[in-house]
Amino acid sequence: MKKYDLTTQSMVRIAMFTAVLSVLSVLQIPMPSGVPLTLQTFAVALCGAVLGAWSGPASVALYVAVGAVGIPVFAGMKGGIAVLVGPTGGFLFGFLFLAWLTGAGVGKKRAMATALGMAGLVCCHLLGILGFILSTGAGVFQAFVTVSLPYLLKDALSVAAAVQIGEMLRKRLVFGHVFK
Fold it and tell me: pTM (2 decimals)?
């Protein structure tokens, strides 16, 4: 296993993708369930697909930390600990698994990379359902129907698109000497 070297260049890439995730999270379409439609899932998967299994989750962890201290980077320009323990908080923690597993697909055939991303999406939705249950007292079925089922197709398409776009971006960034 290769030891990860934290360089200035890697820190800049992590911060850059944290910014991309923050911008794509703020844009939203509110839904009655309280879980809005956003491009967060796409952005998180893109972090993993471009940055890999270490830097992708690091970028997401930085995003969660920035939001936790109150900077309004979460959906709807919200921030603070209350969001992390609220109805959507489980998804924010699940994003770490989505970025990690999508990042684990870097360098693999697209079908395998997409399958790993989908496994990360399943983890994300399971944590999202659990967070919703813990914060609202809803039952498992009600939580699934409210915060997961309506978003599954959009999220699966987002992950598949992020894997494909991430692969193209990595090739261009390697060619442009941004990644070595």
Answer: 0.92
